[in-house]
Amino acid sequence: MKPAMETAAEENTEQSQERKGCFECCIKCLGGVPYASLVATILCFSGVALFCGCGHVALAGTVAILEQHFCTNTSDHTLFREVIQLMQYVIYGIASFFFLYGIILLAEGFYTASEVKALHGEFKTSACGQCISAMFVFLTYMLGVAWLGVFGFSAVPVFMFYNIWSTCEVIKSPQTNGTANVEQICVDIRQYGIIPWNALPGKICGSALGNICNTNEFYMSYILFIVACAGAGATVIALLIYLMAITYNYAVLKFKSREDSCTKF
To answer: What are the b/e assignments for 183-217, b being 16+ CB within 10 Å?
Structure first.
């Protein structure tokens, strides 16, 4: 009986040690996850997806509104249509590039975290590895500056649609806004420079303008442009997080820091 009890106790001890070892292994693995890079990757993918998807559909809706109401002559908006098609192709390229770039930066974050996580800080980084990290810092910085421009540019159609929408609100309630004749309230799309000044009709007034604002194409394009602008802003934030994370990791590898807290980046 006694040997059997000792065997059972030994088995329980071994099982508890195995469980403890698995728990410690999981904690160790979680400690080496680059959480900042992971959050930035999720935010970057979400922002780029919103910008590309919503922007593509919103551009198509804008062309439809322009052709149906503001510019009936096809030759007057040929250049605008070609620019829109080019922008849609650029959107495909942006989506593909950032999908790959996000994965590369996430992999670089995992690699750097594992290097920094080495026991007692005894790790060695080659000059090539440091040059690659520095290249990512520079490239991410340039992409962040470029996306600031994209974010500003994406606010232009939002501003344009907002002006049209606010004009339609005035038409809906002329007495509240102190307007006697709604037919004198107009929107001239030519002033935004997307179609030439000799394009006809170019300007829509009164109830005809109100009918445009009530269409599904106008409403959806307006909302999608807002979402696309928000997606561009989220991408800028993601790139800033990337920049902070890889700059910090590069500095740690550069100076061979021995602090464990750096692995959390």
So the answer is: eebebebbeeebbeeebeebebbeeebbebbeeeb
Cα 256 from Cα 265, distance rounded (Å): 15
**pLDDT confidence band for 256 (50 / 70 / 90):** low
How many whole angstroms separate alpha carbon 40 and alpha carbon 44?
A: 6
Phi, psi of 259 (to 5 degrees): -85, 135
pTM reported for the whole predicted model = 0.78
**Interval 142-156 mean pLDDT:** 92
Cα–Cα dist 114/16, whole Å: 28
**Is residue 71 helix, strand or coil?**
strand
Name the band, by pLDDT with cuts 50, 70 and 90, for residue 175: low
- Tokens representing residue 93 in the block: 């390229």
Is the bond leading into 201 cis (omega within 30 degrees of zero)?
yes
Q: What is the pLDDT of residues 225-247, one digit of tens each?
A: 999 999 999 999 999 999 988 88
Joined together, the tokens standing for residue 228 give 């696309």
**pLDDT at residue 188 above 90?**
no
Give the CA-trace dihedral at 11, 12, 14, 18, to 10 degrees. Answer: 130
Number of separate helices (H) and strands (E) present in the chain: 6, 2
At 148, the pLDDT band (50, 70, 90 cuts) reads very high
Alpha-carbon dihedral of residues 198, 202, 206, 208, nearest 10 degrees? 130
Closest C-alpha among 236, 241, 208, 253 to residue 112: 253
Q: End-to-end alpha-carbon separation of the chain, Å?
A: 55
